Request: fold
Amino acid sequence: ILSNLEDGCMVKLVDDLTGASLRSVDLKNSSVTLDLAGHILSGADGVYALDIVGGSLTITDSSAAGTGEIAGAPAVKVGLGAIVTLESGKLSGTGYGVEVNGANAEFIMEDGAVSGTDKAVYVELGSAEIHGGTIDGVSEDVGVKSVALEGIKVNISGGSFAHAVPADQCADGYMPSKVDANGRYGVEPKVEPVAMAQDALG
Reply:
């Protein structure tokens, strides 16, 4: 459903699609939008529902009820040279909700929800930017192969998390926030200390 599309195309689901295995879908440097429209795109047992290489894919859900979902193991894999942006909808994975694994692969989360029975988002190679939405993992919300490896980057500047956000995953200018009244975690802007007037005057 995502092959051989022109740049700027939108694909809108009109029914649930089960047992899908959209693997190694090459968008060929095109920018495409997938509107779940309240439907479920689910992968065959034990495989990705959606595996993107190359190009840019934006996932959204235009339904009023917000029931659009991609489910798989994991739900979405972001591969070589691909950029996947989640604007709304749910990505639910067995193991990982989203796996980022490829040179110059990038996952951007603006809103929506990502969950996994292990990690919600796992970065093997590439980057993840989280600006908003709900992230729920079991062992970790966002996991990385190793922060010491080149080519791996996580920047979190917003969102609601099941676990405390590690300081090294915060975007520049942000720091982990304390748990809120709902038992959720997030990040907040850093506040630089202001020198007392007498200190400034010496």
Summary: Helices lie at 197-201. Residues 197-201 form the longest helix (5 residues). The longest strand covers residues 96-109. The chain has a mean pLDDT of 90.
